[in-house]
Amino acid sequence: MSDVLFGNNNKAVIKKVANRSFHSNKKRNILAVIAIALTTFLLTAVLTIGFGAKNTMQYSQARLLGSQADALVQGMTKEQAEQLKENAMFEKAGIQIGIAFLENTKQLNVELDYADETLMEVCFMTPSIGTIPKAENEVLVSANVLEDLGIPKKAGETIPVDLKVDGEIEHFDMKVSGIYEPVKNDVGYVMVSQAFLEEQEEMVSALRKDRENRNYYNAHVILKDPSMVEERIGEFIRSIGGNPDDREAENYVRIAPTPSATQSDGNLVVWLAAGVFGILFMFCGYLLIYNVFDMGVTNDVRQYGLLRTIGMTPKQVKGLVRKQAMYLFLIGTPIGVLLGILLGKGMLPAVLQMFVAELGEKNVVVGSLPYLPIIIGSVLFSALTVWISTRKSAKKASRVSPIEAVRYVEQSIGKIKERKHVKGALLPRMAKANVQRNKGRMVLVIVSLMLSIILLNSVFIFAGSFDEEVYVERQMRSDFAVYTAEAGLMQKGFTGHSAALPDNVAEAVTQRPGVKNVTKMYRNTFEDSQVSCDWGINYEVDEEVTEMTGFPDNIKEGKNKKGEFIVESHAALTPDGRPLGNVYGVSDSLIDKLDIREGEKDKSVLKEKLQNENGIILIAGYNDKGEFTEYSEADYVKQQVGDQIQFYENGVPTETFTVLAKAATTDMETGSLLGPGSNIQAEIGGPVMYMSEEHFKELYEKPSLFCVLFDTEKEQQQEMEDYLSEYTTQKNMDILYQSTEKLGANIDIYKNAFLLIGCLIGGIFALVGIINLMNLIMTSIVTRRHEFASMQSIGMTTKQLRRMVMTESLSYVLRAGVIGTVVAVILGVAVVKPLVESGFPFWFMTFHLTILPAILLSIIYIVLALIIPMVSLRFLNRQSIVERLRTGE
Predict the structure, then answer these.
(1) Domain MacB-like periplasmic core, which positions (predicted)?
(2) Residue 406: count of CB within 10 angstroms of its CB
């Protein structure tokens, strides 16, 4: 090398020495490979889970939305749509035309559309049976359409299509060319061919003339660069003659970015989380890798000293240590990457279970994983960690003095205070002095043990704070709710009498053993438009909004004339120009579960007045934290206790009802948990009114049973759960149910996912601490074997030696256990508690402090701290005292 006097190149000699030194340190090599593999494994597993979950959630959300597009562009002309499809800005652009809804379906809302092949791919409509339509009479259909119409699920079948054109029914017999499985069962599609579109151009124009935009070409687009979606598409639309800014303009083109496209911080969150975990894992890896190499240098200090005596320079010694580290890196990193990917992929489905309740199990499909970025990131991370961890050890090896190294015994680092008086037993004092020989190493081992205690305890505090009772209580105060499947459908919902729960079903369910507190909830629908009400606020028809609501022809959207701020500043208006009203008829038993905010608070009196007088209770909801706020107060639409609400039938005044009280209740009691179809409440607008079941039946000619709520005796609850599960999945699939047990099961999914990930990471940190402790004790015994032999030669027994080393070992874990538990409690109160109480990221949490995981882990450490010295000393004592004294010389 260049630093040798005559400039001879001795790289080959250094390589040979490094190879031989590498092969002679099997114990060090095994520990170092484990350390490097663990470090790489940690980040690889987390990156695999993180990116896998992110991709899967994006894909699953796209399935839930029914489109993978970055944006929906609506209301273009045919020429504009062609220009958009050809523009290089878009990776994919699928064209779609919404034509009409079928008139001959039974329960399902079915839309007749045209879509090109690209849109079918983007919107998950690729046929699983048959092919896409080509001929004029061919159609692609979703499987649920055939099920609704009772047609066999086979290509080539004939499907009747009835469309209402200018008030007349047009009938077509179409041939099923292909079938696809829908991502959502609440709406169905029949997709026609280009040939049909061209042949029936006049009919399509007639069907579209009353819809929101005469220019009826729509596009689902995926951009090559999804940044600033709305701005860039808007600029393009202006360039082809569209107007994305003015809704009143004739050339208005609507641009609707999908939620995933507007969540620009998604990648930032992933990278931020990866950065936090990366720093944590790097520190964990540093503790382990540095400790292994530092003790390896301590073990081999005589070897480095001898190499220095024969002319090896400090720079060459550093290179020797780093070359060995590189060998270990090349062995450990692939193992860590492979295990990390395998475990990450294995854990991914379990992690995704926490999202099933929100997305639906059918829509949670594991997406593809970006393996190359994961592998590259993990390898670079591991390389950086190894380089940082071995720098100090390499420098320490290069500074070894040749003379001192030959007779090296580890000395105390730091200043030793002299004491005139010594009290206490000799062995504990010797153990304490030995532990404090190298305070840096002592701190390193204690910190590595503490980390797992703090992490695991914090994970259990957080997971233990998931509160099933709070989650259920804020959504449902009855044990069970039974309703029809149609009530939860997005396009239909509880809009007509057909969605009502049959009386015989309600009776059959509520007559079972143990049922109590039965509540029948009736509510009005769009078909009850002959009955209207007036609560003193004037509304005017908003034709523009009415066109987009999907209301029946005789229902209009009304806005408050005064323009006052009210949460529900709109109302669905009946033919007589008055609000339809959100009106419920309820049984007495529900009143007991209401939170009365104002008015008559004696519930027995309130029940009596509801029955014997024309009384009404106004209903509002809580926020996610279960609090009643000013925003909730606004749900009453400025109505006060004592105000009167006048009802009309076909424009003629009938009954006048008085507001007896204002109350708050949970989502289920207003139908919000029934499914997307319950949005009729928000569409109708105005205050939510509860009246007695009897008065409701007097007002409405065809009262519709919205749902039945009931409780059961505790011993019969599981029996009822099993009965309803079987009934709704096997005997009557038109009926659905909700229960506190089903809601509570969602919390277990969240809790188990956090525990699984937290315990895995915490367990690996614990393993790191144990390896560090084991390595420290074993290295200490090896480097001090001459010292131990000297003490035994002057009278120390094997039992005393064992006690001393076990005391040293215990001193590490006891300090780690005490300090770790205290820090875990402090972090729990200072960090986890405010996080839980803030409602982020989950509102259904109640802080519960625990130190049980910290105590249990400390006990495990104590047991291992007693076992490791015993095993290590047994191997040491195989040599006689004389042999060890000679080895020292």
Answers:
(1) 30-228
(2) 12
CA 429-435-436 angle, to 5 degrees, is 90
Q: Which of 704, 723, 751 is the last residue of a domain?
A: 704
- Residue 533's domain comprises 519-704
Asked whether residue 380 falls in the same domain as residue 433, the answer is no
HSE on the CB side for 290, CA within 13 Å? 22
Q: Strands, E, within 411-555: which ranges?
A: 480-484, 515-523, 531-534, 539-541
Residue % of the chain over a pLDDT of 90: 18
Residues 542 and 676 in one domain: yes
Domain assignment present for residue 507? The answer is: no
Choose one of 676, 704, 732: the last residue of a domain.
704
Residue 347 lies in a domain: yes
Q: How far apart are CA 708 and CA 669, in angstroms?
A: 10
Residue 845 CA to residue 835 CA, distance in Å, equals: 10
Report pLDDT digits (tens) over 52-93. 766 666 666 666 667 788 888 888 888 898 899 888 889 899
Regarding whether 438 and 330 lie in a shared domain, the answer is: no
Task: For 354-404, give the DSSP string.
Answer: HHHHHH-GGG-------HHHHHHHHHHHHHHHHHHHHHHHHHHHHT--HHH
Domains contained in the chain, number: 4
Angle in degrees, 0-180, between the axes of helices 266-299 and 740-783, rounded to the nearest 10? 20
| Per-residue pLDDT tens over the stretch 811-861 | 888 989 999 999 999 988 988 888 887 766 677 788 889 999 999 999 999
Instruction: Specify the pLDDT at position 191.
Output: 93
Q: CA–CA separation, 567 vs 269, rounded Å?
A: 32
One-letter amino acid for residue 502 of the chain: P
Residue with the bigger pLDDT between 579 and 101: it is 579
Do 273 and 374 belong to one domain? yes
How deeply is 171 buried, as exposed, middle or buried, from its count of CB atoms within 10 A (0-12, 13-18, 19+)?
A: exposed
On whether residue 375 sits in a domain, the answer given is yes
The mean pLDDT of 259-276, rounded to a whole number, is: 54
In sequence order, which ranges of 658-784 are alpha helices (DSSP H)?
680-684, 693-699, 717-726, 740-783
Distance CA 872, CA 882 (A): 19
Phi and psi, residue 211, nearest 5°? -90, 175
Q: Long-range CB contacts (< 8 A, 24+ apart) of 375-378?
A: 375/44, 375/337, 375/341, 377/43, 377/47, 377/274, 378/40, 378/43, 378/44, 378/47, 378/333, 378/336, 378/337, 378/340
Strand partners, 585: 522, 691
pLDDT tens-digit readout, 371-429: 888 888 888 888 888 888 778 777 777 776 666 555 544 454 445 454 544 444 566 77
Distances (CA, A) of 695 to 614, 690, 692, 701: 8, 10, 5, 11
**How far is residue 572's CA from residue 585's CA, in Å, rounded to a whole number?**
19
Strands 652-665 and 644-649: antiparallel
Cα distance from N-terminal residue to C-terminal residue, the chain: 34
Q: How far apart (Å, rounded) are the C-alpha atoms in residues 408 and 403?
A: 9
**Calpha distance 633→627 (Å, rounded):** 11
- β-pairing verdict for 129-130 and 531-534: unpaired
